Amino acid sequence: MRMYDLIYTKKLGGALTPGQIAFWVKGAADGTIADEQSAALLMAICWRGMTTEETLALTLAMRDSGTRMDLSSVPGIKVDKHSTGGVGDKTTLILGPIVAACGVPCPMFSGRGLGHTGGTIDKFASIPGLKVELTDAEFLRSLRETRFANSAPTGDIAPADKKLYALRDVTATVESIPLITASIMSKKLAGGADALVLDVKCGPGAFMKTLEEARTLAESMVAVGKAHGMRIRALITRMDAPLGWAIGNALEVMESVEILRGEHADSELAQMSFRLAAEMLLLGGAATTLEEAETKVQTTLRDGSALETLRRFVALNGGDAKALDDFSRLPQPGQAIEVRADRAGYIQAIDGRALGLLAMELGAGRKDRNDVLDLGVGIRVHAAVGQEVKEDDLLFTLFTKAGAQPDHAAYQATIQWNEGTISPSSWLLATIA
Ligand code: URA
Questions:
Q1: DSSP symbols for 339-404
Q2: 115/206 Cα distance (integer angstroms)
Q3: What pLDDT, in 10s, does the model give residues 150-186?
Q4: How many CA atoms lie within 13 A of 151 on its CB side?
Q5: What is the DSSP letter of 327?
Q6: Whether 366 is catalytic
Q7: Under a CB-based contact definition with an 8 Å cutoff, are residues 275 and 427 in contact?
Q8: Which one, 56, 129, 138, 177, has least CB within 10 Å?
Q9: Is residue 174 within 8 Å of residue 45, measured between CB atoms?
Q10: Long-range contacts at 32-35 (CB < 8 A, ≥ 24 apart)
Q11: What is the value of pTM for the model shown?
Q12: Ligand 1 atom nearest to CA at 165
């Protein structure tokens, strides 16, 4: 087989066979196919797309490029969640303990942040002592004893995705529905869960800018999951602002704990986390109607069992569980700086991507994979979409290293203004089953 022929076929809009796709993925991962040939095929896929059969074959080949987690020793339907990413998205920290407290095992592999996006692993790493790279045995023990496990991928999950994602990142080929589908679903299938709830973000700061694109991606991932016998459901959620008040690692732990304590219950972050958790309970067989699932979610907040599950997860994996009740034990910033409005108006949108990049500049995120984070720094977002703002109202509090002098104008520029009132639309745009 010649890689040239695969590139040529796809350039003309033809379909590749499962054998050809397996040949490419294996060669890309083991280095026997040159990066420039893989890059050319990636670009051809971006333009020409893939059939459902090709996307399935790509997902399988990527899943099988590495190890697979065997969760069969843990009883029950294991339910995972994946979000296509948003600044301030800490739903895993909230819904994982809720779902586990309802009796459904929740195994989750998470990534580290890069660029404007934060990573769940970095957020958990801000809890002193917490081990965020578990061995398979530790992961299974956590899942068995607390019903919640979160770790950077153990073993060698989907190494072909690492290789191809790095190439996509530098060749402007990330935004392709079959490539995103195979990348996400190969890792989720290798992670071993029986069921998956997807949160597909839609909006100016997301991969998918329109509802139509988000729907196509959601349907593509649901089709691949179903073809592999997974119970799977997707929510399409609006992204026109950062999620919640916190951007930055320790700050996001604080906000998550506050929600588990029952605070900010009406916030979009809380509502979204509760709904995703309820969907996970439905897939996990812990409820038969959405209403029943939502009631169970609320019970774990009221009786404290969700927060207690998080404490147990942290303590079991070497972390300082007292930090969840005493935030002064979490990493702290050097100073706090207020950014105030330089004009009056109504907030139409808040550019989460730009704020994510500003948080990265503060030290909360990575410019380069090897950067060391300052886990205590970040941004508190006071501004909200739809809000009427007067000149000099507080928009953001920046938690920075001592002596840092952030550019206030750059923060003010993240707000998109409107002269008249705005009625914010629902965060939930569609569900795909
Ligand atoms: N997240 C992934 O893991 N892969 C993609 O391709 C896009 C988002």
A1: EE-SS-EEEEEE-HHHHHHHHHHHTSS-SSTTPPP-TT-EEEE---TT-EE-TT-EEEEEEESTT-
A2: 14
A3: 999 877 899 999 999 999 989 999 889 999 999 999 9
A4: 25
A5: G
A6: no
A7: no
A8: 129
A9: no
A10: 33/3, 34/3, 35/167
A11: 0.95
A12: 6
Q: Give the Å distances, CA to CA, from 69 to 25, 64, 97.
A: 20, 12, 21
**CA dihedral angle for residue 323, residue 324, residue 330, residue 332, rounded to 10 degrees:** -130
Ligand 1 mean position to 430 CA, how many Å? 21
Dist CA 397 CA 83 (whole Å): 27
CA 233 vs CA 76, 115, 170, 182: distances in Å: 18, 28, 31, 17
pLDDT given for residue 154 in this prediction: 73
Q: Please give the C-alpha separations between residue 181 and each of 51, 218, 294, 417, in angstroms, as whole numbers.
A: 12, 9, 29, 35
Q: Is 183 in the pocket of ligand 1 (CB under 6 A)?
A: yes
Whose C-alpha lies nearest to ligand 1, atom 2? 184
The number of beta carbons lying within 10 Å of the beta carbon of residue 390 is 10
- CB-ligand 1 contact for 180 (6 Å cutoff): yes
Distance (Å) from CA 184 to ligand 1 centroid: 5
322 is catalytic: no
Tokens of 36: 């420039």
Single out the catalytic residue among 187, 231, 312, 366.
Answer: 187
Catalytic annotation, pick one of 80, 161, 240, 351: 161
Contact by Cβ (8 Å): 280, 232:
no
CA-nearest of 178, 219, 179, 229 to 198 is 219
What is the best residue among 50, 84, 120 to mutate for testing ligand 1's pocket, by most ligand atoms within 8 Å of CB?
84
In terms of Cβ atoms closer than 10 Å to its own Cβ (0-12, 13-18, 19+), residue 386 is middle
